[in-house]
Design a protein that fits this description.
11 strands, 5-stranded mixed β-sheet, binds beta-D-galactopyranuronic acid, D-Maltodextrin-Binding Protein, domain 2, 6-stranded mixed β-sheet, alpha/beta
């Protein structure tokens, strides 16, 4: 049964998420499922497979493209290599604040990124927050880029993240999200970078006790659906789904803001050392790197559009 004792819908959309149950993205997609079930009088619902049950993020994108599953929620980072439109929003220091990122993803840049998923058999339904990524590690506090020198740092499978880490003097180790905790534990890596909610929900804070506020990337999340699946739905149902997905964005942001604050308090209470960094030094180190990524005219235009909303 999808919802307590309610009857099973005729159409069940399968959804994947790498995060644990209760994570804001998982909650938001469940919320979409509940609204969709109500709006279609119980004809359509969503079944959520959280915690990476359906595989790594990149693999779930292929499952959706080939119409094996219906929906997946993935971060822009693992999409960067295959979906160039996601790159600019994952670059370091492209957004000045959460408000800037939200304005840009709600506006023309976000719409353009969603539109371009259509080039590869996917439909981008909406873009969610993913907080602000920072470096953390098992060894020492990071204040300056040079403090990263020689550290083995896990990055998502994205050339942007791999090269940026290398630019800062660390040794980047691309690993799937689900493998980071044990890689820290077994000293395969010294650290990683992510938002504080993921640092907390994956329990990596138990092993990596230094969280340094580099605030280098807001790399957002995309909710993607298979184009073929959408085409099998009526125009009316497609519109209902899109409207509910759009409405889930502010809902998710409320959950996100709460989750971020809860996670920060929890890791602090557990004794994790949080420190500020010389952010200017990180920005200076990132500037030529960012410039080097802005070669394609479409990326240059997207970057200009994002910066114009700062
Ligand atoms: C998180 C993101 C996940 C995953 C992870 C990672 O912030 O929400 O989907 O991409 O980062 O670094 O692999």
């Amino acid at each position: 049964m999808l919802l307590g004792a309610a009857p099973e819908p005729a159409t069940v959309l399968t959804a994947a998420d790498a995060h644990v149950d209760g994570y804001p993205t998982v909650q938001a997609v469940r919320w979409i499922g509940e609204r969709l079930y109500e709006a279609t009088s119980g004809r359509i619902g969503i079944r959520m497979y959280h915690s990476g049950q359906l595989g790594r993020e990149g693999d779930t994108v292929d499952l959706v493209r080939h119409d094996v599953i219906d929906l997946t929620r993935v971060n822009f980072a693992p999409l960067n290599n295959a979906f160039p439109a996601t790159r600019v929003a994952a670059l370091p220091f492209v957004f000045d604040s959460t408000e800037h990122m939200r304005r840009a993803m709600d506006g023309a840049p976000g719409r353009e990124i969603l539109r371009r998923f259509g080039e590869r058999d996917l439909v981008g339904l909406c873009i969610y927050d993913s907080g602000i990524r920072c470096f953390y590690n098992v060894r020492h506090a990071i204040h300056e880029p040079r403090d990263l020198h020689g550290l083995k740092v896990r990055v998502p499978p994205s050339d942007i993240f791999i090269q940026f880490c290398r630019e800062l003097g660390a040794n980047p180790t691309p690993l799937p999200f689900g493998e980071v905790y044990s890689a820290l534990q077994t000293h395969l890596i010294d650290g990683a970078e992510n938002n504080i909610r993921s640092f907390h929900s994956t329990r990596q804070f138990e092993v990596a006790r230094f969280w340094s506020e580099t605030r280098h990337s807001y790399s957002p999340e995309a909710l993607l659906i298979s184009r073929q699946r959408l085409e099998r739905m009526s125009a009316g149902d497609r519109q209902v789904l899109q409207d509910i997905a759009t409405a889930s964005v502010p809902y998710m942001r409320t959950l996100w803001d709460e989750a971020e604050a809860t996670s920060r308090a929890a890791v602090l209470a557990d004794g994790v050392q949080i420190n500020t960094v010389n952010e200017q030094a990180f920005r200076v180190a990132a500037a030529p790197f960012v410039h080097g990524w802005l070669r394609d005219p479409a990326d240059v235009e997207l970057h200009r559009a994002i910066r114009s909303l700062a």
